[in-house]
Design a protein that fits this description.
The protein has 436 residues and is of the alpha/beta class. It contains 11 helices and 12 strands. The strands form 3 sheets. Strands 2-1-3-10-7-4-5-6 form an 8-stranded parallel sheet, with helices on both faces. The chain has a two-stranded antiparallel sheet with strand order 8-9. Strands 11-12 form a two-stranded antiparallel ribbon. A hairpin with a 2-residue loop joins strand 8 (249-250) and strand 9. It is globular.
Amino acid sequence: MRPKDKIAYFYDGDVGSVYFGPNHPMKPHRLCMTHHLVLAYDLHKKKEIYFHIHLFIFSSSPDNLGEDCPVFENLFEFCQIYAGGTIDAARRLNNQLCDIAINWAGGLHHAKKCEAFGFCYINDLVLGILELLKYHARVLYIDIDVHHGDGVEEALYFTDRVMTVSFHKYGDKFFPGTGDLKDIGEREGKFYAINVPLKDGIDDTSFTRLFKTIIYKVVEMYQPGALVLQCGADSLAGDRLGCFNLSLMFLMLFAGHAECVRIVKKFNLPLLVTGGGGYTKENVARCWTVETGVLLDTELPNEIPENEYIKYFAPECLLNYSRQAHTLCNNVLKKSRTLISLRVSVDYAADHILVRSKCKCWKIFVASNILRVYRCKRFHLISIFLILMKMSKILMSAWISTPETSKFSVMMSITMETMIMIVTWTCEVTCSIFIW
């Protein structure tokens, strides 16, 4: 490991004052909340972190603005701030002025070459990757937003110098409708686009297992010179537009979303980290603050310090908030009903996610050995025990993070939902054993 990582953190106060309009789910105000939370935890006092306010002026702009991409005051300046921050972050990485660059305002991965799309006007990720390619032969792009990173994949679909890996919800007409397992790139870029389509309700354990197995093997075989990580927070449980069941921390240990950041950081490669989606503002601020701490190797206390936006985190005022436990418990029941289809899709992904380099004549099946445990009947026999352990931890988490005045009602609610979930899980596992 490097003795000390130099961190560049990009923030401009004007970015949080942008207003997309009434009833629009995108709220740039979440960036102000994140920044003040970072300051409240004194992360800016770390010697290896530097703050930058930067504007990069460029002439390109979208030719087509859809209904989900409204025209608002200071639109061009907004694009300058978030896209310019990502470009300058890549430049600082190229010039070895920092080891990790963070731009939570960036990560708008849906924008196309000639079209604004999905709340995204300029695809700053593509611009940042093109900048990194000036100094690095290969760049690996990783996307953990609940929505497929279609704009980035489309821009780099025909090149082998960038490998794109996206973990996202797919199916049921979920936006943007792309990211099928069979989409692997074309021409020189064939096999350099990896899509991991997932179903509703995937939890920390399943997501982290998939992420770690696939990313470790991809990095081992592809040997990138730099990494770009898009940390869309709409994959967290409880997001207004999301449907995943990821958390930040579990009993004060990194889990799910933050664990993915920790895994990528451990590769010790030049790393560009951006934001992305995320439509429950207080959860987005929690997420990106925790992950700023992860990148700084700093453990944050669960109690949120006093800051300008403390009222948004009431009544718990905790990073590991109690609503998260409720959402996890509610969604696990939904997940148990789709266990068999999820297992089949994981098997299919394990066998068919293919990475190949023509020049070195190697090919691998990502996760094909480790994830075959899903096919093993012994897995079904221990799954009941595992789910009991999982729910016990959820109950402990809820008990720790719930105020004394509401502990009884919270525990009664979760206990009833847990019993229903265990019965459902047991029946489906038993049926699947007999069927197989």
